[in-house]
Amino acid sequence: MDPSIVQQTFKAAPLTTEFFLQGSVMENSLETLVNRLKGLCDNADYQQESFQDHEMVFHIKNTSVPTPLVFRVRHSLVQTECWSLRYLGHAEVGDKNRPTLVRSYIDCPTSENVAQFIGELGFRMDHEFVVKGFYFHKGRMKITVSKFYKMNQPGNTTNDTIETVCPSYLVELSVVTSSGQEAVGDDMKNFAEQLKPLVTLEKTDHRKIQLAQT
Amino acid sequence: MGVVCVFACPVPEGKSGQQVVDGLQKQVEMMGATKSGNFLVDCETYQSNPQNVTQTPQQCVVNILHNSEHPASCFSVTESGQILVSDLLFEDLMSKLTMAKAGRESFYSQRKGFKIESRGQRYEVGDFIIKIGSVSLASNFRGILIEVEYCPCVILNECWNMMKELLQSMVGNSAETPPPVLKHKPDTVYTPSDTILQYLDHFNNFRKAVSAPPPSR
C-alpha cells in the first residue's frame, strides 16, 4: 500500500474519544459476573483473557498554572514488550440524555524506553500502581473487571510487594472511537442493562469524587 | 529491513541541485534500477517552555521525524539521543503539550522555520534500495541526501565494504568511512532508529549551515 495512503488513513479519523460507564462488584460476586460476561461477549468458548499491567503516572508542571498535564505509561507484566503512553482527559457527564461518560483518550503504543524519554521531556513520576483483571469484547465494546494494587516498593511489581487498595473490582464498559459517534452510547446502555442486577454500570460524576478527596 | 547508510552528496560549483539529482537518477537507472515510488523523511522540532518546572534549567528540544518507509510510525529524538519509536498517535500526545489553554502557557512550542525534509525518488536494484532526496528547509533547497539500503544483511560490518563501493560511485570520498552515527556500533543489529539518527545528524548539519547562502536549485 502506498505509504502516503497509510499515513492519511491513520491521521484521518484518529480514535481519541472514549465513551464509558463504570461500576463495581465485591470479590464474592466476581465469579458470577465473569460467567455472565463470558455468556454475553464474543469468543464465549475460549478461556477469558486476563491482564496484569503496571501503570506509572507522570506529571509535567508549568509555573503559570498549578494544574499539571498528566501522561500515563502502561506496560504489561505478562507481555513485557508491550508498552504504551496514554492520556486520559477529564470525564464529562454532559446532559442527562447522554447515556455515558465521555473523555479524551489517547493510547499510543511505544518502544520500551518511554519512561526515560518522557523524563527527558520534563515529566516526573507522581505515583504508580499495578492493575490485574479480566477483559472481554462485544463487538467494539470492551469490558474490563480490574483490581488495583498499591506498590510498597517503588518499581517493584512482584506479588509479595503489592497489596490491594480495596476488596472490590472496578467494572468498566468502554468504546474508543472518533469524536461525534454519540450513537454508540445507546448500544452501551443496552448492554449495561443485561448486566443488572449483578453490577450497575452508570455515569459516575468524577468531580464529586475529587471534591470528596480535597 | 537491512542496513541503511545515508550520505550527503556534494553539489559542485556551477551546477544546480536539480542537475545533480538528475545526474544521480540517470546513473542509478544505468545500473538497472527500477523506480519504486517516492519517499519522504521529514523532521519538525519542538522546544520546551522556560516556565516548565524541571530539574535542569536547560531548554529541552525534541525532534519528531517520519519516514515513509515506516508509514505507521513516528520517531521522537531528544538532544541526548534518546529515541522513542511509537505509533502516529504520538503526535496527538504532542499536541497536548503544545496546546495553550486558558490561563496557561503551552509546555512545548514548535520551532518556526525549522521544518526540514528529504524528498525524492525511490529505486530498487537487486538487493539494494536507493533513495535520492532533495533536502528542503522551510521550502528552501539546502542539499542532496543519498540513502542506500542493503536488504539481506542487518550487521553493518558484514556489508560495509560492498555498500562503500556503491556509495563512493555516487557521493565520492565522503563515503570513505561509515556514517558517524553508526561508527560505534558496527556489530550490533541495525534498526530503523539508526536510519532516523543518521537523517537527524544530516538535518542538523544543514540547519547549522543555514547562515551560508543555499546552493542554487
UniProtKB/TrEMBL annotation, chain B:
UniProt entry keywords in alphabetical sequence: Activator, Nucleus, Transcription, Transcription regulation
Using the record for this protein, list the coiled-coil segments as residue ranges, or answer none: none
Q: Which InterPro entries match?
A: Mediator_Med20
According to its UniProt record, where is this protein located? Nucleus
What Gene Ontology terms describe where this protein resides (cellular component)?
mediator complex
GO biological process terms, alphabetically, are: regulation of transcription by RNA polymerase II
Pfam family example for this protein? Med20
Complex and partners: Component of the Mediator complex.
Q: What does this protein do?
A: Component of the Mediator complex, a coactivator involved in the regulated transcription of nearly all RNA polymerase II-dependent genes. Mediator functions as a bridge to convey information from gene-specific regulatory proteins to the basal RNA polymerase II transcription machinery. Mediator is recruited to promoters by direct interactions with regulatory proteins and serves as a scaffold for the assembly of a functional preinitiation complex with RNA polymerase II and the general transcription factors.
Q: Which family does it belong to?
A: Belongs to the Mediator complex subunit 20 family.
Instruction: Report what the protein is called.
Output: Mediator of RNA polymerase II transcription subunit 20
Organism expressing this protein natively: Magallana gigas
